[in-house]
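Quick one, tokens below. Sequence please?
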């Protein structure tokens, strides 16, 4: 008998695409998509409308004999959730309840979690290349990044309580592509993009297809561990803006938040203190571990991921 996999957050783009890519994979008999709201379009897999914050999630996993849980249901922007407090509730409380359910359900043997490289924070004291063992010197203080730090803490605690479960966490660089809508994509596509005067940070990106592919491999290869994921190479912010055809508006760091929020009113763009640090210092990940463990090297470099995103923005 093959694996029954459950994927959370399938009504959002990346979760739905991940679930679709798992359908009909060798060794996977059934894929169940979970979300609190219906998907915008029919899914390739079975859909169950459920709130992972409810205790009934354990009954669902047990009844379906779920063996693998892929947790993609972490929300990156407050607008997606209906406000910051709701976003934190979904991200942190939702993960707590999901992990509590996984702990009780004996059939669960594999957990894959989508996290973010933003858990490392960003600042001038960071090493040139950040490995999975790097201790953050400028840990995030707000938003999705801080939620993800808490999510990872709960995941590690779960791993200690259920050592029989293989736990895999991916710390993704900025995910971009034709279908992605995030705080970063909203920032990069502003008509005029505020930047920090005197700084041109190094950045990395992951094409959406590569983010889904590495998740698919983790499920099929029964992978455990924590891995950085980013497209090969780096690009600096000025290069990204040129590829997108967006003019920069250099500002002192102290003004960036106020001016940026004013210019981006009505969009998902993020001008938190953590994001301003990132727009000042950047962040570069060492991805040798994911290549060694999963044999994974993305099909798109960081530059190629941005180019694909830019082409979609231009409508080409």
């Amino acid at each position: 008998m093959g694996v029954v996999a459950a994927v959370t957050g399938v009504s959002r783009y990346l979760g739905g695409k991940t679930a679709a890519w798992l359908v009909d994979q060798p060794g996977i008999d059934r894929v169940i998509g979970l979300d609190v709201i219906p998907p915008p379009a029919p899914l390739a897999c079975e859909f169950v409308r459920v709130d992972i914050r409810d205790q009934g999630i354990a009954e669902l996993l047990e009844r379906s004999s779920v063996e693998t849980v892929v947790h993609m249901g972490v929300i990156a922007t407050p607008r997606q959730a209906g406000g910051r407090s709701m976003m934190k509730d979904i991200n942190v409380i939702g993960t707590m309840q999901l992990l509590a359910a996984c702990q009780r359900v004996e059939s669960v043997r594999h957990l894959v979690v989508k996290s973010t490289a933003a858990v490392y924070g960003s600042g001038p004291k960071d090493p040139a290349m950040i490995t999975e063992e790097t201790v953050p010197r400028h840990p995030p203080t707000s938003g999705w990044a801080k939620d993800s730090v808490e999510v990872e803490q709960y995941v590690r605690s779960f791993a200690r309580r259920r050592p029989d479960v293989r736990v895999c966490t991916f710390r993704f660089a900025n995910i971009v592509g034709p279908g992605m809508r995030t705080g970063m994509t909203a920032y990069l596509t502003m008509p005029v993009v505020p930047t920090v005067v005197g700084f041109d940070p190094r950045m990395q990106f992951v094409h959406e297809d590569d983010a889904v592919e590495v998740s698919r491999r983790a499920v099929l290869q029964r992978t455990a561990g924590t891995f950085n994921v980013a497209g090969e190479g780096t690009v600096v912010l000025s290069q990204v803006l040129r590829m997108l055809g967006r003019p920069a508006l250099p500002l002192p760091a102290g003004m960036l938040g106020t001016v940026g929020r004013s210019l981006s009113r009505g969009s998902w763009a993020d001008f938190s203190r953590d994001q301003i640090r990132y727009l000042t210092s950047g962040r570069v990940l060492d991805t040798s571990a994911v290549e060694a463990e999963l044999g994974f090297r993305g099909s798109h470099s960081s530059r190629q991921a941005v180019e694909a995103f830019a082409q979609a923005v231009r409508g080409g």
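The radius of gyration is 19 Å. The longest strand covers residues 28-35.
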